[in-house]
Amino acid sequence: MGSRGCVRFRGIYVLPIRGKKCLIIDPKLGGSLSSIIQTSLLKEHGVELRHLSAEPIQSDCTKVVFLVRSKIDLMKFICSNVHNDISKGLQREYHVYFVPRRAVVCEKVLEDEKVHQLMTIGEYPLYVVPLDEDVLSFELDLAYKESQVDGDTSSLWHIAKAIHKLEFSFGVIPNVRAKGKASVRVADILNHMQAEEPVNSPDMVVPEINTLILLDREVDMVTPMCSQLTYEGLIDEFLHINNGSVELDASIMGVQQEGKKIKVPLNSSDKLFKEIRDLNFEVVVQILRQKATSMKQDYTEMTTTTQTVSELKDFVKKLNSLPEITRHINLAQHLSTFTSKPSFLGQLDMEHTIVEAQSYDICYEYIEEMIHKQEPLVNVLRLLILFSVTNSGLPKKHFDYLRRELLHSYGFEHMATLNNLEKAGLLKKQETKSNWLTIKRALQLVVDDTDTANPNDIAYVFSGYAPLSIRLIQHAVRSGWRPIEEILKLLPGPHSETKRGRFSSSPSFDTLQGASANIDRAADGRRSLVLVVFIGGVTFAEISALRFLTAQEGMAYDMIIGTTKIVSGHNLAETFVEKLG
Amino acid sequence: MANVSVAAEWQLLGDRYYRKPDLYHPLRWKHIDLSRNKVACAPFGGPIALIRDDSKIVQLYAESALRKLRIFNSAGVPLSETIWKNPGGRLIGLSWTDDQTLVCIVQDGTVYRYTSHAELLEPNFSILGQEYLDENVVECVFWGNGVVCVTDACKVFSIADFKSKNPRPLRLADPAPEGIEELPHCVAVIEPQYTMSGNVEVLLAIGDGVVMVEEDEVQPLPLPPGDGPLQKMVVSGDGRFVASFTHDGRMAVYSTRLEKIFEYECESALPPEQLAWCGLDSVLLYWDDMLLMVGPSDEPVRYLYDEPIVLIPECDGVRILSNSSIEFLQLVPNSTVSIFKIGSTSPAALLYDALDHFDRRSAKADENLRLIRSSLSEAVEACVDAAGHEFDVSRQRTLLRAASYGQAFCSNFHRDRIQEMCKTLRVLNAVRSPEIGIPLSIQQYKLLTPSVLIGRLINAHQHLLALRISDYLGMNQEVVIMHWACSKITASLAIPDATLLEILLDKLKLCKGISYAAVAAHADKNGRRKLAAMLVEHEPRSSKQVPLLLSIGEEDTALIKATESGDTDLVYLVLFHILQKRQPLEFFGMIQARTLARDLFINYARCYKHEFLKDFFLSTGQLQEVAFLLWKESWELGKNPMASKGSPLHGPRIKLTEKAQSLFAETKEHTFESKAAEEHAKLLRIQHELEVTTKQAIFVDSSISDTIRTCIVLGNHRAAMKVKTEFKVSEKRWYWLKIFALATIRDWEALEKFSKEKRPPIGYRPFVEACIEADEKGESLKYIPKLTDPRERAESYARIGMAKEAADAASQAKDGELLGRLKLTFAQNAAASSIFDTLRDRLGVS
């Protein structure tokens, strides 16, 4: 979408402060910025790059530039840096750039701390970071916790702003479907923004983005708590993908350098990765094996028989893909050391049992045992959340018992963690009967005979469980919310369906059926786009499922995915863990 | 020929024709004698200001002895007047600035500024510096937005920009050496935009020479011998030439560095009353009843006037104001010459002629057209251009008709050109009408730009015309409507709020995206707070609406609007505003019921205002939240390195936790938390004791389970047991903890003993797991046979690589799926794999 270039251009824009300077960045921004500005480029401009932390930074630059997200708690660090300089009698020029915009509350803190008048304040309007050809991230990793637990809905404004900015380039999106409290609110703010600062789209042009689907993570907390089984998903679960790459011991990748870490980039510019990232891991292993075998075969043929020049050329072309094949074989091998562990298999089994929701006691005892065995807290929380969400809470006795055991096993500081989870509704006392079974059945979330090699349904990404979130999107794209209205009512939060711009008055623009695809097709014959925005994060497995849907025959749209952050059950659960003490 | 009459009005100066059409005749004013008044005329057809000249002795007719400042438009229509009774002595200088503010400078240096509505703009200020207040201004020279004054002590002061909020007078270098106070004969300025330094340069004719004065520099400029002293000087419109009148009756033109370019000997040695540039081509000199126009050639043009006149230089000519009329003296444009010059056979003239024939149905029209076929587009262009320069509407029309007639036969002429010209002329004719009285030439209009013209119209309160013009030209109407609305509010003190609101809304809605907040702010400034509140209600942009609501004291509404907008930044803005203005309790009350505002406040306070947050929770009765805060504080105490190791800080930690517990206990819903806090306090005490007795600082802040494990690892089984009973740890957990603890220290003997104590409540699986994880195959074999579930047994055997035993167990379980899975585990081992196959066959499962 060309957005990468445009952000890179803005990257330089921070630098007009002349001369040698020390650029102190918010570590959380480091990742998204590194995918935009190269560090080498910064060095060329005489920039010393540091990360912001509680520790004051030692530098002899007279100009200090802070580049931070507009978060209250980061102001502490800025203040401590400045106070430290003052106490040492150092005089520097300070610049603070807020991403994506200045915030009254941050400046208030700087004022309270009496450093505001020393600062030159600017903005760095980075609302969206493109992660891949079809994935945009708003880089709001705490969005879910902030809005669910702290009631801070700043992220919703940010998301609406980002979408509104997109609309300035792509025209007003005529159809908006939202499910969940936050989503409906974003749709609301977006309309508000359109009224305040209208995007003027020329009348006769079909807007490039036809539909916006907004979905709260809150609506489907089941999916992220399940272990992802796609190739990319598994890599994330075990190795944690960070800004499109993983960091691994060099030895894993077959490089013999003791203790050295290397970064393996993972994005669609790697052809092989693009081909296999969305497949079920089982299948990936087979494909890699086939590729290796056929390569070996070609090689033997090459050494025995005489070849024509064109055959040689083909062979050499294949050889070019050898490093990629080796890279992924190494990775896959490393992954299988995790996937073959009994504990992982047991956990998978348990996830499925919980999702099936047929054997309450087995699940309950399994989790109890995990706590007793003091297995890693986040693993326990994942299952516990899954369990509570599918049962719409736990009976009071069990709720209190498990909480107590948890505090006893992991420490009383997790009182705050439990409180967070309860506020977010992820671990709570059962008050109503669960309707998970109804939802599961109505949306066919559990698909028994899933052929992971030749999938005909999105359920392949979890080997038999079709992610609820993607099922909803599948319905939204195919026929709108109306046919599944009853089911939507069973899920958390309200839902809405609105027409905007000049389409708001046309009466029969109701469903987005395949048949009407011709009308929706953009002028140059490309398929028009659906922008799916996940508020609270999306997992790689879900992205894979969406790509699978896009690739299906009869699909009228291409999809672009927007998300507050790419998440896994692990880091989602982790955001709720309070670190006291 | 029809054309003759037009050219008959022209005068030839050298080889160029000049004309001076009447712009307005007669003027609308009555009984005005310019000679009795000081006059200031704004360029670009701007207003005329008159005030009785107090340096002349004049006879008063039927009028008051009070002097009046009167302002007219260029057609002599009175716009406004006010009584002039400003102190400070004689009025020395009077002029209009670029944005049409009338600047009046009196003898003592005070500067009075008026709008074109004769309203005094406060504050007045002095152009003289503090220490020169006793000097008198004797001469003022104005340019665009600035002025230069000379005092009787021959000091030079300047104001560079009247537009700025606080015009700052600046003293320039002294033109004459200290002590010599010879006054200059005349003064001229070169505008900053034409100087190298970007600052004004002042030319003063002192003695026989000329000096150039800048901010901190004086430079004498050599004058050709015999020229000085100069009697009058004036700088050309482009800042490149100086026209002057020498002591001996010569008119000389110099470059700005005083190199002589041209000279003309006049008949009179008496300096002219007025000296002005007409465009860049000629210089006008005015004596009593004669106006002399001198051009580059020898023969000047003479005009006679039997009434006083005022020369008003414009960029493309000079307007000549007299008591009864206003004329525009200009060079006849080339296109006009080519059409109307006597005997002209230019294509344009023939085209114009052809139209005449066509109108008279004469076949000669066609003949003419054929003659000029090859240069038709050039002819059309000339007609269009000439039409633009015409002030006479019917002649404009004829010329445009000729153009459009020619264009019909001309394929390669840019069609929009005629349309555009029509548009421009409509606008010009509209503003030239006497009621509006802005006689702009097309060249002036282009230089001025339409948006400035609209600005002038709205300043003159001609909103309707301004609106129509901006609509007609496709410009944004916001500025017009906005100005109208503000003027309306100012002028409508008597109209009740609701009525006025309706009047305003009716017009404001014409313009999408107009800032209601700005209009509201104006209403508020005019003391109409209620109207402001009603207006701001209509502002769609919350970012503009909210701050205004705050400034008019509508804090509640501001909070609601900010919340609605979803922009948390605005909510914070409101919060901090209220926080600053109100008492804490009042503030708490305001936000308590507003979820978003409350949560945002809590987030802010949580980071930086802990105590204040506690006050908030206490005052709103959220005791459990206070409890959480206290509990958190106790952890923060724990972070203090002095807190552990039996230090006295330990006491306060426990106290805080206990306080939290009692607060939790206040509400029924928080019994769980209360219990947990109680246990936590108890745990801290026990851990503290343990650290004292074991002299190892490893207990505090670990969990109950970890404490038990640590005790067992240290071999202190009694302590472990004590913790267990103290916290009623279940048998199940106890077993897990003890098994793992024993496995950690590899005390296999103790483990076995433990397994035999009684039948373990969780079976033998934990024992097996602990052993396998510790890689003690032999130890695990002690427990595997004791597993009751054959499936578990099978898997355990499989994990330690005993295929045969695993297969046996699995077959006992009669579980085909399990067999298959186990077979996979043993995939590398052919022998083992075959065992599974046989077993599967035997079981008859696929």
From TrEMBL, chain B:
Function per UniProt: Required for vacuole biogenesis and vacuole enlargment in dividing and expanding cells. Involved in the docking or fusion of prevacuolar vesicles.
PANTHER family referenced in this protein's UniProt entry, alphabetically: VACUOLAR PROTEIN SORTING VPS16, VACUOLAR PROTEIN SORTING-ASSOCIATED PROTEIN 16 HOMOLOG
Annotated signal sequence range: none
Localisation per UniProt entry: Vacuole membrane
Boundaries of every Vps16 N-terminal domain copy: 8-417
Parts forming coiled coils: none
GO annotation terms (biological process): endosomal transport; intracellular protein transport; vacuole fusion, non-autophagic
Keyword Membrane: yes
Keyword tags: Membrane, Vacuole
GO CC annotation, single: endosome
Family: Belongs to the VPS16 family.
Record-annotated Vps16 C-terminal domain positions: 514-827
Recorded GO MF terms: actin binding
Record-linked InterPro entries: VPS16 (IPR016534), Vps16_C (IPR006925), Vps16_N (IPR006926)
Membrane-topology descriptor: Peripheral membrane protein
Record's protein name: Protein VACUOLELESS1
